[in-house]
Amino acid sequence: MKKLGLSLAALVVAATGALADPVAGVWKTQEDEGAFAHVTLAPCGDKICGVISRTFRAEGEFKSDTIGKPLVWDMVAQGGGNYKDGKIWQPSKDKVYRSKMALSGDTLKVSGCIGPICKKQTWTRVD
After folding, report:
1. Mean pLDDT for the chain overall
2. pTM of the entire structure?
3. CA R_g for the chain
4. What is the DSSP letter of 7?
5. What are the b/e assignments for 36-49, b being 16+ CB within 10 Å?
6. Angstrom distance (rounded) from CA 78 to CA 82
7. Is 4 exposed, middle or buried (0-12, 13-18, 19+ CB in 10 A)?
8. Are 48 and 55 in contact (CB under 8 A)?
9. Which UniProt key words apply to this protein (predicted)?
């Protein structure tokens, strides 16, 4: 019985790793008004969410009050590296945009719109 329990536990761990979303990890944003961030993307239920994990200026890393805050949420994987129906927050303007993402290797194209106003950034994988 003990072997069966250990086997099941190993199977669950292996399946979890196999189901990990390819966009999961740490991403460097483009600079926005003199600062950029590292954003940690991970599954949150059946969607993808991201929080600000580190912040930087030209002088180096600094402790922003945005660290730990959600930057991306409700992204739905569409397959083929595409995500849609999410939201993204722009801290420098304190605005939330409807958002989508497209993953290609270690590059993530992120875009968001409020009405006719759209913005785009290209993020690069850190980890």
Report:
1. 88
2. 0.83
3. 17
4. H
5. bbbbbbebeeebbb
6. 5
7. exposed
8. no
9. Signal
- What gap in Å lies between CA 23 and CA 92, rounded to an integer? 24
Closest to 29 in 3D by CA, of 18, 38, 20, 21: 38
How many residues make up the chain in this entry?
127
Contact of 37 with 54, CB cutoff 8 Å: yes
- At 66-93, the pLDDT tens digits run 999 999 999 999 999 999 999 999 999 9
Give the position of tokens 């993020």. 123
Is 9 strand, coil or helix?
helix
> Two tokens at 2?
């003990």
Structural domains of the chain, with CATH: 22-125 (2.40.128.520)
Give 88-108 as a DSSP string. EEETTTTEEEEEEEEEETTEE
